[in-house]
Amino acid sequence: MNTSELVLEVEKVNKSFHDPVTIQVLKDVDMQVARGEFVSITGKSGCGKSTLLYILSTMDTDYEGELKIDGEPTRKASRTRLARIRNEKIGFVFQFHYLLTEFSVLHNVMLPGLKLGLKSREEVEHRAMVLLGDLGIADQALKGANQISGGQKQRVAIARSMINDPLIIMGDEPTGNLDSRNSGIVFDIFRKIADEHKRSLLIVTHDQDFAARTDRIIEMDDGRVVP
Amino acid sequence: MRLLSTIAFTLLRAKLRQSIVAAVGVMFSIAMFVTLLGFMNGLNQLLDGLILNRTPHIRLYNELRASAEQPIQLAYADSTTAGKAPMHHFIHSVKPKDDLPRLRNATAIMDVLKKDSRVLAVSPRLVAQVLFNVGTTDLTGQVNGIDIMQEVRYYMFQDYMVAGDPYDLANGNNTIVLGKGLADLMEAKIGDLVQVTTATGDRTMLRVVGYFQSGIADYDKVQCYANIKTVQKLLARPASYYTDINVKLNDLEEAPVMAKELAARFGVQATDIQMANAQYETGSDVRNIISYAVGIVLLIVAGFGIYNILNMMIYEKLDAIAILKATGFSGSDVRRIFLLLSVIIGIAGALGGLVVGVTLQHIIDNIPFVTAALPSVTTFPVDYSIRYYVIAVTFALATTWVAGWFPARKASQVDPVEIIRGK
User: pTM (2 decimals)?
Assistant: First the structure.
């Protein structure tokens, strides 16, 4: 595997929670994700898979070890730089959709794009409409974010994660709140993103069927990656 | 920045009612501040004007007094070297020498003053002590010979005339404006003739052309005004005979220094307005301090309102803050959004407050207010100085900024992981 193709590299990451007693939740975690790879992380509750994901997301900076995103070390980067990396290179889909209810569906998708500021408002709006169209919810674009169904909300969240054409999309149980039909739709969308857009996906899930259909499964147990 | 303000506005719209309550708090405090200070300062100016308008900034006059140094003190004053001791001055109750209480060289002094760049106006005055003969009784009075047009222009003479026209006084010969109190005592109507006896015993008939009311009752029972030429004739003095020169300066603050300078230069007595009326300034200052204190307290209370509402909004919007941070908005972006929210509330409140404040000022300005002290005043006085609007808006923005800063900082420190994982 060519190293320049690696979008995510993790070296010897350790993390402990200190409250109320010190518990080490991640132990010497090493992993890599290549461009266009669809990876899932599975494991039992409390095995540290979500904790790992939030470290990878750059939002949690309280750990030891090194994390490189697109070859750039992030351990010592400033918070502003990390915010920029999240904006430009990482897309997020959470179990809960986290749409801003004050804004329309379209505006929710556009926000990270407007924040990046590389394209004009019209271009961002156009791209948002294309994404919503791809996800089959273009007709909902002008509705309020809380006027659409749960499955649709999650698709809006996916569109939002893709607005800046990120290198990697991370998901924390993105299908956890969805019925099997909507889960299927979301999986197909992810599959398409990996295959057609050559974007990497790193999805934390405990849905074994979902994990089984991804390119690679990283299984975690008690803070370690099971080899 | 445009994006951040869009987000701020959208959040504001979603919490419209609370935002309006916060803005109304600011609005009320600004309105009260502007109204209070405008009204208070209007009153201050009115009260100060009672004296200050009528008082020259510097008054030059010649007081008859005994010489400070008697001949005996001057002789051998510095003769210790010659072996003789200075003479002892043993005469008690030295009297002033026989002289007229006039300003020597008054015309020349006036010419010099008129050329001085600090001086706004110079007007001469001739004060005569007289007796008004009313039937068998005599009333004491003081006739001020004035340059009418100068007094109208620089000392608001017309504002204090309750009847008659100052121009009749300027144009007529042997005319007089009586103090209102004095006119009532004499039952002198406009057009009547009054008989005046001077200190030297000369008698003249003067025609009453108007009444003067200063608002100070004792003053109005004694003071009268006439053309300076009339008074010169009354006293049988030449046209250059003046007892006072009144000087009005461009800057009142210069009065004490300039009074000393003029006194030394022309060898006359000089009093300045600050020395004569120190207590008026103290009163105004105290009233000003009280109104500023009340206004600023109101603004601070409004600031706490904003602080509360923003704090509440942040707790309700933790999810939004978390996802904004997750999708690439930095802590300082979030801080700016909430600061903007606060400042928008502040600006809206300040503008509303100005409108309400100016309206209230106009209402107060139209409430009837009649006082014997000021014949020209019919409604409550209001000072529409732009300074109070500027101070109010500046302070409101500063308060809302500070009130917004703490909640905004809290918002910027929200840990998105904690919020998102907590679900």
Answer: 0.70
Task: Compare A69 and B274 and report the one with higher pLDDT.
Answer: A69
Residue A102 Cα, gap to closest chain B Cα (Å): 6
CA B86 to chain centre: 52
- The tokens describing B271, both together, are 């009093």
What is the pLDDT, as a whole number, of residue B117?
87
Assign A199 to helix, strand or coil.
coil
- pLDDT tens digit string along A174-200? 888 888 888 888 888 889 888 888 889
Closest Cα in chain B to A166: B327
Smallest CA-to-CA distance from B5 within B310, A83, B13 is with: B13
pLDDT tens across B181-206, in order? 888 888 888 888 899 998 888 888 89
* Cα distance from N-terminal residue to C-terminal residue, chain A: 18
Residues of chain A with C-beta less than 8 angstroms from the C-beta of B331: 79-80, 83
Question: Are B328 and A92 a contacting pair at CB < 8 A?
Answer: no
Q: Which residue of B has its CA nearest to A173?
A: B421
DSSP tag of A3:
G
CA distance A148 to chain B (A): 18
**What's the CA gap between B342 and B22, in Å, rounded?**
9
Considering only the beta carbons, identify the residue of B13, B330, B421 that sits closest to A79: B330
Calculate Rg over the CA atoms of chain B.
Answer: 34
Chain A residues touching residue B320 (CB < 8 angstroms): 100, 102
Residue B423 has pLDDT above 60, yes or no: no
Whole-angstrom distance, CA of residue B306 vs CA of residue B4: 19
Contacts of B214 (CB under 8 A, 6+ apart): B50, B54, B160, B179, B220, B223
Interface contact B416-A59, CB threshold 8 A: yes
A3-98+165-225: CATH topology: Rossmann fold (3.40.50)
What ipTM was reported for this prediction?
0.87
Say how many CB pairs under 8 Å bridge A and B. Answer: 72
- What six digits make up the tokens of B34? 């502007």
Strand partners, A69: A8, A72
Cβ neighbours of A106 in B, within 8 Å:
none
Sequence spans of domains, chain A: 3-98+165-225
Give how far B24 is from chain A: nearest CA, Å. Answer: 23
